Amino acid sequence: MSPVLSVTSAQLSAWIVAFVWPFVRMLALISAAPVFGEKNVARQVKVGLAALLAIAIAPALGAMPSVPLVSAGGVWILIQQVLIGSAMGFSIRLVFAAVQAAGDYAGLQMGLSFASFFDPSSGGNTMVLASLLNMLAMLIFLAVDGHLMVISTLVESFHVLPVSDAPLAAEGWHFLALAGANVFSAGLMLALPLVAALLTLNLAMGILNRASPQLSIFAVGFPLTLLGGILMLQQLMPHLAPFLEQEFALGLANMLHLAQALHP
Question: Average pLDDT, whole number, for the chain?
Fold first, then answer.
């Protein structure tokens, strides 16, 4: 006779818990992270990817808290995992928000503030230049294997901040709020050469208008500003990848730092 495989309810509950809690954190991060969390990506793909990752790493995570899944403590742990995954995904998305901010700054100086269209990923109107820089940033992110580094950092977060029913530390949320300031500083640093060049061009046209009032500066000002912005944007492109690589590294470090700060 063949041996009978017997599984107790306690073992089944432990297996389910070992899968569900990591799965929830991964699904929350995938839904909030760039590239993975875009609205163009189907929900089935996000859920399937999170499930495959949870199955792959669950055996290496060690013992889970002895809290039933269907209980007040189990629901509290689920909420914590959603918050942790969403916060980590949001911290790396701040890099792409800085790129979009740089596109907004540069587009405003180039006179492209009215050249906008509806962006499904953000749910609102986005400047053409901001959308262009965002797409370039995503391509660079994929080229440097940023998506794989995000998954690696997520797996490492389970060792830095293991699944538990202890409350999360407030220092982590304070760190996430301070990291949002990087959106404005990094966006301004990226757009600063273009903005400075266009400001110099506008000053030169203002001086020319004062020196020669009969010259219709408004008729030639917009074409010159647009042409100057395109030329400066062309000069900026070779330096975009090295700048974004540093920002991606900072965003990944912030993900791990956030997990450490949330540890009670």
Answer: 82
> Could you give the CA distance from residue 23 to residue 258 in angstroms, rounded to a whole number?
19
Q: What is the DSSP letter of 36?
A: T
Of 204, 244, 252, 253, give the one whose Cα is nearest residue 224. 204
- Of residues 130, 174, 117, 139, the one with CA closest to residue 34: 139
pTM of the model: 0.82
Q: Say if CB 194 and CB 229 are below 8 A apart.
A: yes
pLDDT one-digit tens code per residue, 39-76: 888 888 888 998 998 888 888 877 777 777 778 888 88
- Helices H / strands E in the chain, number of each: 9, 2
Sign, CA dihedral 188-192-194-199, equals positive
Find, among 126, 108, 109, the residue nearest to 117 by Cα: 126
Q: What tokens does 139 get?
A: 């391509």
